[in-house]
Amino acid sequence: MEDSKKTLFSGMQATGNLTLGNYLGALKNWVALSDEYNCFYCVVDEHSITVRQDPAELRNRARKLLTLYLAAGLDPEKNCIYYQSHVSAHAELAWILNCFTYMGELQRMTQFKDKSAKHADNINAGLFTYPVLMAADILLFQSDVVPVGIDQMQHLELTRDIAQRFNGIYGDVFKIPEAYIGKSGAKIMSLQEPTKKMSKSDENPNASIYLLDDPDTIMRKFKRAVTDSEGTILYRDEQPGVKNLIDIYSACTGKAPADIEKEFDGKGYGDFKMEVGETVVSVLKPLQDRMADIAKDKAYVDNVIKTNAEKANYFANKTLRKVQKKVGFPERIR
Ligand code: ATP
Ligand code: LTN
Questions:
Q1: Does the N-terminal or the C-terminal CB of the chain have fewer CB atoms within 10 Å?
Q2: Ligand 2 near 244 CB (within 6 A)
Q3: In terms of Cα–Cα distance, which of 24, 203, 224 is closest to 118?
Q4: Domain range holding 16?
Q5: Could you tell me which residues come within 8 angstroms of residue 152 by beta carbon, excluding any fewer than 6 positions away?
Q6: Is the distance from the beta carbon of residue 11 to the nearest atom of ligand 2 less than 6 Å?
Q7: What integer is the mean pLDDT of 35-61?
Q8: Within a domain: residue 208?
């Protein structure tokens, strides 16, 4: 890790199948930023168990997600790609920060409200304190920037509040992180209900493009994407389905929405959907191929898991020890 560079932290949950929203809203930006910063990219498996998981499946998905990070182009030599559960400082700092977070703050979190409505039979304390663990993830590494989709902004604000509160009491312990929201793709919507975000936990498989969907499936889902009866390809809130397709096309090609409107001026929805579908296939196919290649090299992936966890532990423990000292835990005797 280079001293001159600023630090970036981000993470994804190893639950469900990753969607195009995860890729365009998060992973793609991670890759774009990975040269400029010292980066920590975490598979946040501890966050995943706030919702009941099948153990074998969680393990399997966590490995797949880590492989996806590598396939997307994140370099494990320059950056740190690891499992949250391999770095115990996450949970230890989360405990301490729990004691600096108010119930009222957590009660306001929309993700908690949404997830507790969805999992009414398992509203556990972990689901409630989830944002504190996320704050610990970020603050452990003295992160400057945190690239996330818009849905995570509220958690980022809370992280900053907790850090400022702690610093107010104990001096400058934590760096105050900034969110980084990509210019395009920050909120990809469901293909079936374009006023809802595309989510990997959506029950309707046609609502989401999964990163591992084959080309035929991708094309079929775009063909069925919900639009409207306006018949014009314009980037405006009144046409959420079309707007979402323009957003997807924009995030994949780098073209601005206004230029996309011009490009498809006078064309029908059918043609437009096909073009967006083909563009998405051309982005996802190479990613899928690289993932399959990397997964075959078990020793390589194992080595990344081991060496990168060591790196992450080193940096995380530096902050944890400082925090423990500040709050008054007894010194270790060596
Ligand atoms: P779920 O949809 O099941 O609640 P999630 O996909 O939001 O899960 P994560 O896997 O932790 O949860 O999200 C990883 C990253 O992907 C986060 O930065 C999040 O903001 C981003 N992200 C998720 N969905 C979208 C979306 N539809 N558009 C843009 N970014 C998204
Ligand atoms: N809460 C996030 C995942 C997450 C995260 C983080 C993102 C956990 N810890 C730290 C950025 C930084 C989510 O549900 N998408």
A1: C
A2: no
A3: 203
A4: 6-181+298-327
A5: 179
A6: yes
A7: 96
A8: no
